[in-house]
Amino acid sequence: MSAPLPDEPMSGDPLHGDALHGDALHGDRLADYAARLEQLAIEHGLEFDPVHFDMVPNRFMLEIAVYGLPVRMRHWSFGVRYIHQLVRQHMGHSRIFEVMFPGDPCRAFMLEHNSLAENTLVTAHVLGHADFARNNALFQRFMGMAGGHILEQSAARAHRLEAALAEHGQERVEAVLDAALALEAHIDIGQPLHRLRYPEYLKAPASGSPDRAFRDRYTRLPGEGEPPAPDTRRQRAPLPPHPEHDLLWFIAQYGAELEEWERDIFLAVREEAYYFHPIFACQIMNEGWASYWHARLLREAGFLPHELYLAALKSHSDVVRPYAGGQQLALALNPYHLGFAMWEHIIEREGLDAARRIMREEDDFGFVRNYLDADLARELDLFVHETRTDGETRIANRDIHAIREAILAPKYNNGAPSVAVTLLKPDGSLELRHDFQHDGRGLDLQQAERVMEYVGRIWRRPVSLNTVDFRGVMRTLSARKTGF
């Protein structure tokens, strides 16, 4: 892995040298170093599931990074991401050294044209990711729900999608994927992956309730007979009974006109969103933990040739530096840089046992709020900046609380606006509401209108969204597309 690595999926445990392919001499030496680094990691208390490594060409690695998986459902948006990533690479803004997927076993891919020093560093880095994925509570919870075989599952989904394309045509299938991928961040992480539909009817009052005692007293009054029997007809429960934030789940469960293959696509995108959630929610912690351990393992690996260690150290420096260089101020946050600095700071002050406890219990919200202190923020020269309408960018705040919240702001609600289903009407029309008070801002109306068009085309009944514009004025967006 190396300088600034893009957001990468991560991984799991013992290295299997026989899974390393590429130049024979390079592969043999790397397999030897990998086995010895693994043993060194175990001696330091790292715990991990087996990790299978494959060396792949740059084009394949780029496709994995863009699609998020080696084999995934085809969609035009991935082609746009591919071009964007290719441009970034050509401009020198991004280089992908490895991609790793948690599971049992975990799968890790490294570039075949990396140097031996770079792939040795990647191996040590992956061991840190593997330890994190095995022990962090959020990873364990979501891996338990989504399963540890994401590559096989995504390949099976891609196969089903190809069958749907052959049967229903590109236009119909692409429209479903447009809607599902536009909503992929709109899951409810407080709910399990596999959940039941809401009860169709309200609960009937329990017999022997206070109402029964009243009825008994009523019949004992002089001249009174049995009171009228209560209405025993079952009442339908409102849908949803409370605001439902898992839009993918609700549409898949209650879209009356969706066909089974369409529901399957929505649920497949939702399951992948659950798999990737802890990677997104723990990125600073996870990248920092892996970077701390690759630095420490390489430093203590006395079996590595001196020149190889120095070359690996150079790659390490590229990975954990701020995005800016020289005397420039960095306006973008490198999660490797911040996470590595925070773990070093914690271990120096509180010890490795305390760091392991924090690693097990926290996500990025708790990690940054509880362990990024003013001293470290000052040392790292962290600040909040703002850009004026005339294009001038200036430092707005160096308060530690403002810095923490600015770092975490893109992570709220999976990086998406807080939108919930509030009502499914008897005629099948759907009402959504944007919680702009919680979000603290209005929606990008142009983007919201496009998403509403996607949703309306799949829901095939009227859909409305209540929100505010950038001035705080109430707006209702409507979609009345009714299918194909």
Radius of gyration: 27 Å
Strand content: 5-15%
Structural class determined from secondary elements: alpha/beta
Q: Number of helical runs? A: 19
Placed side by side, the strands forming the largest sheet appear as 6-7-8-9
Unreliable runs: 1-22, 78-93, 324-329
The biggest beta sheet reads: 4 strands, mixed
- Form type: globular
- Count of individual beta strands: 9
Helicity range of the residues?
40-55%
Mean pLDDT: 82
N-to-C SSE string, H for helix and E for strand? HEHHEEHHHHHHHHHHHHHEEHEEHHEE
Taking the alpha carbons of the first and last residues, their distance comes to: 46 Å
Description:
The chain has 484 residues and is of the alpha/beta class. Among the domains are: 324-415, no CATH class; 416-479, no CATH class. It has 19 helices and 9 strands. α4 crosses α11, α7 (170-182) packs parallel to α10 and α11 (283-300) packs antiparallel against α12 (306-320).
